């Protein structure tokens, strides 16, 4: 149960950072476009390029599956 709670917290933290990249970095359209095409690798590349400077968020995308990542981008 503790592990599931920790994973959920990481996923929510990642979703907040993904939202930051989408809106504050102006990358909403590329993220949504890649989600429409099912291109999770490109979404991850965009995210890591914008969050690479921050060691606390840089690899948070690894906490979610490709499907979850695509769904998050579709909800942006």
Could you name the key traits of this structure?
about 0% strand, about 80 residues, globular, mainly alpha
Task: Describe what you observe in this structure.
The protein is an all-alpha fold. The protein has one domain. Helix content is 71%, strand content 0%. The chain has four helices and no strands. The longest helix has 23 residues, at 2-24. It is globular. The model has no long low-confidence stretch (mean pLDDT 87).
Integer tally of domains: 1
Report the principal-axis shape.
globular
Q: What structural class do helix, strand and pairing data support?
A: mainly alpha
Q: Total strand count, please?
A: 0
Q: Provide mean pLDDT, rounded.
A: 87
Helix content: over 70%
For the sheet with most strands, the description reads: none
Measured by DSSP, the beta-strand proportion falls in under 5%
What is the H/E order? HHHH
Radius of gyration: 12 Å
How many H/I helical runs? Answer: 4
**Gap between N and C termini, in Å?**
29 Å
Short précis:
This protein has four helices and no strands. By secondary structure, it is mainly α.
Furnish the topology, listing elements before pairings:
Elements: H1 2-24, H2 28-36, H3 40-51, H4 66-75
Helix pairs in contact: 1-2, 2-3, 2-4
């Amino acid at each position: 149960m503790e592990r599931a709670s920790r994973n959920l917290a990481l996923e929510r933290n990642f979703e907040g950072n993904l939202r930051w990249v989408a809106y504050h970095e102006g990358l909403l359209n590329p993220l949504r476009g890649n989600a429409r095409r099912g291109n999770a690798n490109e979404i991850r590349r965009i995210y890591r390029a914008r969050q690479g400077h921050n060691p606390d968020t840089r690899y948070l995308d690894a906490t979610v599956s490709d499907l979850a990542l695509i769904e998050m981008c579709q909800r942006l």
